[in-house]
Amino acid sequence: MEDKKFGFTVSAENLNGRLAMIGFVAAIALELTTGQGVLHFFGLL
Prior knowledge:
Number of helices: 2
Shape: elongated
């Protein structure tokens, strides 16, 4: 049986990169549809 690996593994970095790309695209889509940035949309600015 294979041991579970934690930390900077290839699969963890791939997942992190994919989630970052999804978040970046979501932030751009939010700005294009609402005309406000993410911080303004959530009322932080």
